[in-house]
Amino acid sequence: MINRDLIEIFIELAREKNIERSELGTIIEQLFLFIIEKETGESDNCSVIVNLDKGEIEIYVEKTIVDEVDDDHFDITLDRAIELEPDLDGELKLGDTFVEVIDPARFGRRLVANARQFLNKRTREVQQQYIYEDYVQRIGEVIIGTVHQVHRENTFVNIEQTELRMPRNEQIFSERFRRGDTIRALVKSVEVTAKGPDILISRSDDLFLYKLFEMEVPEIEDGIIEIKGIARKPGERSKIIVHSVDKRIDAVGACVGMRGSRIQSVVRELNNEKIDIVNFTEKSEVFITRALSPAKPVDLYIDDDRKYCVAIFDEGGLENAVGRSGVNINLASKLTGYTIDAYTKSEYDEVLINQKTSLESLDGITKTLSNKLSKADIVSVADYLNIKKYVLTEELELNDKEVSSVSDAVNSFIENTHNKEEEVEETIENTEENIELDSIVEEQNIEAVEEIIEDVDSSDEKPAEDVELPEEVVDSEQDSQNIEEKEE
Predict the structure, then answer these.
(1) Rounded Cα–Cα distance for residues 97 and 404 (Å)
(2) In sequence order, what E strands does 24-173 have?
(3) What Å distances lie between residue 229 and 302, 329, 351, CA to CA?
(4) Mean pLDDT over all residues of the chain?
């Protein structure tokens, strides 16, 4: 038997370490087996029974009855066995197995010295196992924790007594944390290491955005609205596809909320990350147009089999379509699953010319050289512009002279084509300017003539008495009057 006080000490330690009572019994059993093994080098023939309710611990060792003892941990003489168990006198014989009961008190101070060290180790292992099993089940959940330490590569977050790690690449690049900050993050993975479970959390994962919308939009949690896809550049812009199972409910409107209340909550949590919400549709043309928002393409050329799309934009709209560092068009491509190339109308015309112009038709490229290029499917000017240089030098084994001749011919073609286009544009612009000038001059002439006509008309409309006559005319009129009077 062992003193109940020692059992009470074990129970108190287990309570501090948050270890279940049933688990404590196993730990005490392992403790005594550890001490026995440390003392004798072997514990396979030993067993320990612990009764926490009664405060009892029993230790049994199986030994073989022999004439001479080679190892007292495994062997025992017949006389010693009978001495320990007098009731078995006459029943025991050589070669039988004898079970010896060991008093735990025999371990003395070694038990006390080793017990605390072993118990701390085992409780730590048990706690780590609890933490691992708990967080493995919570993978994909959003947790709330307090920032404990901020390092260059990792930010450590505490939840109660558990430490979680958020690597730099799982953070939003524009965020900076301080010790004591409260943050939300997604439990991404849990791995077992020598130091315990490594719990990885993330704020940049696509699933984190999904969970935030699920928390803010009840229709998503209820399954009425589905998020069918997410494309995200953490901290800059995100695009999500939503679809309403119930036709009476507007998926985009539900996610935005009254006066934008729902989406603004998500935006604030993500450090003002811009979010585009796209309504799902089976029509690829409409779907791609929505995905490219806020830019609006003028025209789309779609190849559904190859999952390829050419989007044409106005001169001012191309920049919005591509976005800073290509963010907008890359997210649209990821969201739709289509490879999207964006051009202005003039750029796309150049691309078409490059595709239609064969390398063989260019000056400076021989038939032999064009045949070599065709082996790598380099047939047109566009093919050459899209090829990597190592293909020419390594795969086709072209020498520097051949590479230079091809490059010069292609560059010359592009320059000539571009210059011609510029000349045509200048001619058109000059013609339009001349036409405008001629029309202005003509309008001015017409206005001048109209003014003259108006002046003439206005003079005709004056009354007779208001018209001043020259003196000669007045004298002649008086003479004629005098003549008429004399005749009479």
Answers:
(1) 93
(2) 46-51, 56-66, 75-77, 97-102, 142-150, 154-159, 162-167
(3) 21, 16, 32
(4) 79
SS3 477: helix
Q: Which residues contact 355 (CB under 8 A, 6 or more apart)?
A: 380, 381, 382
Please give the Cα distance from 412 to 418 (Å, whole number): 10
Model confidence pLDDT, tens digit, residues 260-297? 999 999 999 999 999 999 999 999 999 999 999 888 99
Nearest alpha carbon to residue 146 among 132, 162, 134, 133: 162
* Cβ neighbours for 325, distance < 8 A, ≥ 6 positions apart: none
**Paired sense of beta strands 237-244 and 225-233, if any:** antiparallel
Residue linked to tokens 């799309």: 309
Tell me the CATH number for domain 138-202: 2.40.50.140
Pairing between strand 154-159 and 142-150?
antiparallel
pTM, two decimals, is 0.66
Pinpoint the alpha helices (H) of 193-281: 206-216, 218-221, 251-256, 261-269
Amino acid at the residue 461:
E
Sequence spans of domains, the chain: 4-131, 138-202, 281-356, 358-431
Alpha-carbon distances of 296 from 275, 287, 288, 342, rounded to whole Å: 17, 12, 10, 11
For residue range 97-141, list pLDDT tens digits in order. 888 888 777 776 666 666 667 777 877 888 888 899 999 999 999
Residue type, 370: S
- Burial status of residue 407 (CB atoms within 10 A of its CB: 0-12, 13-18, 19 or more): middle
DSSP 312-348: EE-TTHHHHHH-GGGHHHHHHHHHHS-EEEEEEHHHH
- What is the 8-class DSSP label of residue 70? S
Which CATH superfamily hosts domain 281-356?
K homology (KH) domain (3.30.300.20)
